[in-house]
């Protein structure tokens, strides 16, 4: 992989680097798997002039618990993004022999650098040699969903951390969090506001107090509390967002099929395609100011998020048609 492409293989969202390498333009960022429609913050009071009150954080956790289907809000802990939450959980759980399911999110390996990689799919079995297992469901980048019942069974013998960052548009495990089944949920991806840096850990009574003590009294900003609380209570917008995601996914599938590109993985917010070499397609799209997500360890794979609107979809279709001609 050349140096220019390697820059974009760590994670998505590197528009400044894309402009530096491929030039200025009206860029379409399909590299992140974040919904391209943001919940409308508008003139919501942000509280920048003060720290959040404990009751306000608790109210946010109640709103999130209701959205996730968690019966008791005390099991839901607001955190400044799930990536940081993983790095806080690692020393709290102190696993002697952790394992991480691959391929998957690079942040899992960063939080547990001594973890043994296990290639998906996994199956529940007796006598697991690992005392902690980390995975995403839906997985990144292929959208793989691991059977929730199997994960609940596996947590009887091993602590399981399930990263459900992409689970908002689909059924998830959140209502089943326990001290042996720890679930992470992200706010920014479904609500299109990753800069808010808001996420949640869903666990039970043994872990939650230790995590709260590690986070301190003000784990998130007043603005994150205000935005998250209002957004999670906005059921009308949530239904509209779900419809936008579903409809745009169908349109994106048609564009990829017209270009003869095989979709080898999918989640509601992204598609994984096979193209050999993917580096050529990545560069071609980048020269058309369309940023996608390559993978250093999967040179034939490219991930695309959902384009926003007919104009972005048409630009992608035209660029793909030019590439395959």
TrEMBL record:
<dbReference type="InterPro" id="IPR015421">
    <property type="entry name" value="PyrdxlP-dep_Trfase_major"/>
</dbReference>
<feature type="domain" description="Aminotransferase class I/classII large">
    <location>
        <begin position="130"/>
        <end position="306"/>
    </location>
</feature>
<dbReference type="GO" id="GO:0008483">
    <property type="term" value="F:transaminase activity"/>
</dbReference>
<keyword id="KW-0032">Aminotransferase</keyword>
<dbReference type="InterPro" id="IPR004839">
    <property type="entry name" value="Aminotransferase_I/II_large"/>
</dbReference>
<keyword id="KW-0663">Pyridoxal phosphate</keyword>
<dbReference type="InterPro" id="IPR015424">
    <property type="entry name" value="PyrdxlP-dep_Trfase"/>
</dbReference>
<keyword id="KW-0808">Transferase</keyword>
<dbReference type="Pfam" id="PF00155">
    <property type="entry name" value="Aminotran_1_2"/>
</dbReference>
<dbReference type="InterPro" id="IPR015422">
    <property type="entry name" value="PyrdxlP-dep_Trfase_small"/>
</dbReference>
<protein>
    <submittedName>
        <fullName>Aminotransferase class I/II-fold pyridoxal phosphate-dependent enzyme</fullName>
    </submittedName>
</protein>
